Amino acid sequence: MRIVTFDAGGEGNTVLWGVDETGSDIALLVNTIGAYTGTRLINEGFQAQGVVAFKVEASGPWTMEVAPVANARRWDGADILAGETDDVVIVAEGLAPGLNPVTFVHDGDGNFTVWSYGGDIPGLVVNAIGPYNGETLLAAGTILIDVQASGPWSMRQP
Description:
Blueprint: E1 2-8, E2 13-19, E3 25-33, E4 36-42, H1 45-48, E5 53-57, E6 62-68, E7 73-75, E8 81-83, E9 87-91, E10 100-106, E11 111-117, E12 123-129, E13 132-138, E14 144-149, E15 153-156
Parallel strand pairs: 7-9
Antiparallel strand pairs: 1-4, 1-6, 2-3, 2-5, 8-15, 9-14, 10-13, 10-15, 11-12, 11-14
């Protein structure tokens, strides 16, 4: 697994596609109007298998860095972790056996999704549009969280 950190300026449409070896767009990683800064998970999930290159559409200057998932931010569960946009977070091993309650807050006006990986039941943890404040459970063994947010967000253990 890898992460891509993408930063694009401009006022037009900003799109980042993951492309497979045939040149086909297979993973829509970013699709927004205006500037964008964030980190996305690649080569995980049903849509992103086989990403070997990227296609960028941006009306301003842009930069991109691809790195191993080990370079993602880390969360030990003891403190509040906050972000402003899309991010990938490594969860400390052994938060607690069994299901782990986590509170998520989102102050954006668009989509807010949280995916968990590595747990007994990986999958969609939060799927909301607009502001969100709620407690959910992370499966035991969750090692990675993929946040897609349209504004400021935070996560903490209650």
